[in-house]
Inverse folding.
């Protein structure tokens, strides 16, 4: 099943020439190079971390590569496996966007995997944009890609970023030169529009926003530790303590090497 | 690959007993019946329509069934296939939640498919909640499930709902008795918290919001036709005109039967 086939669906139907006027379409145009997007997929990934940005990259008709350590399907939090289109061996050498989704256990496993860290470093050093959503920034950090950069992560592990030389900014989407990191899970939508504007222009990003009807109206106001309050946040921190402690150990070990 | 296996990841790790105090956990509890959630999956589905609500239903440890016409994988907009866990034949007879994602071409195909419409009708008439995101409400409408109910849909087809007896409300999430319909794609997140509160209580829904860090801050304000302005909206309506016309024909035909 080929991604290109699906461009016949929402992606292409919505945007292939959708925002080109008839007059423009009739003129011969130089074939624009599609931005090359490499999205890391790893086991224990949060599918929603991937799906938000993937949907935007697809509508924007970028050249998307889902890159796994191998081409074996990876597991996700919701039980739907994702099959990589590329392995570390077949992935493009130079990416316009290197993107890393999160999922705490999967991120920590990836931080400890030398081949994954080496791949991140090799592609991250050459990519036009180095990006993440959720705990994905911990893997960027472990590869030395956030040293001296402002960055963020899921609220429950973002304090670990300075262990790997990053300057923590508690914002939803943090840009510093060509690094763009976002907060937990749903911050991927805000990230997607931010990177979309850089790749295709602000108007194209706004069209994506309109197509996805991204005019959020959460029924509750509990989407950050500040708004949810300390009781709810502390409970999550406490119950996820073991996983966060493993992430802290991995961050310290990685930090000592970079 | 079994969904239950993945509850070891974010889902279970985050919430299995996560919000139970130690004292509560030590007391014998009557085994609570998990809410049974039936999520329709169909070809040309928008994966993000499914993924937002699926993530919340998974964290809330509901009993999730991904129901296809058959168990064959269905295609999605982003090229990642989804394999149903159930077919119409094996799906539970009684659902706490019947949920339908969108994807305009896929919705219209489903509206025209007698077996799909009959399945929707049989499960919808008995479900505790009958719900949709995006163009999914057109399929609910075609099954006669929105007749006399307030409802909404993706902005570019919501005007078609009255053809099937619904009262259009231009809101992001519309509740009317046990019908809950939401706007386009990303409205699925607001829907997920709304239904989550009904199934598991407001505190549980807020914990989902905090885990998903759903504190949205879109970088642009173009997520509705009203905010994006008529030029951008009209262009989308014009370029999607053929697909919308097909949806209108299907809605008229369905409306004549109910």
């Amino acid at each position: 099943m080929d991604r290109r086939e699906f461009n016949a669906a929402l992606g292409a139907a919505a945007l292939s020439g959708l925002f080109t006027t008839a007059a423009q379409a009739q003129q011969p145009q130089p074939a624009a190079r599609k931005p090359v997007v490499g999205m890391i997929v790893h086991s224990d990934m949060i599918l929603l971390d991937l799906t938000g940005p993937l949907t935007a990259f697809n509508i924007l008709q970028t050249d998307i590569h889902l890159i796994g350590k191998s081409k074996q399907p990876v597991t996700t939090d919701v039980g739907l496996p994702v099959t990589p289109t590329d392995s570390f061996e077949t992935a493009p050498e130079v990416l316009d966007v290197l993107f890393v989704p999160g999922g705490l256990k999967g991120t920590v496993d990836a931080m400890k995997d030398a081949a994954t860290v080496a791949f991140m470093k090799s592609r991250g050093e050459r990519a036009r944009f180095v990006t993440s959503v959720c705990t994905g920034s911990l893997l960027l950090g472990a590869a030395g890609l956030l040293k001296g950069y402002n960055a963020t992560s899921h609220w429950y592990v973002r304090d670990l970023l300075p262990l790997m030389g990053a300057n923590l900014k508690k914002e939803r989407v943090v840009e510093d030169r060509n690094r763009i990191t976002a907060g937990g899970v749903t911050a991927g939508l805000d990230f997607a529009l931010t990177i979309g504007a850089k790749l295709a222009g602000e108007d194209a990003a706004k069209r994506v926003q309109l197509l996805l009807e991204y005019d959020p109206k959460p029924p509750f106001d509990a989407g950050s530790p500040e708004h949810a309050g300390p009781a709810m946040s502390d409970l999550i921190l406490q119950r996820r303590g073991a996983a966060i402690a493993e992430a802290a150990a991995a961050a310290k070990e990685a930090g000592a090497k970079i």
In short: Residues 12 and 59 of chain B are 7 Å apart (CA to CA).
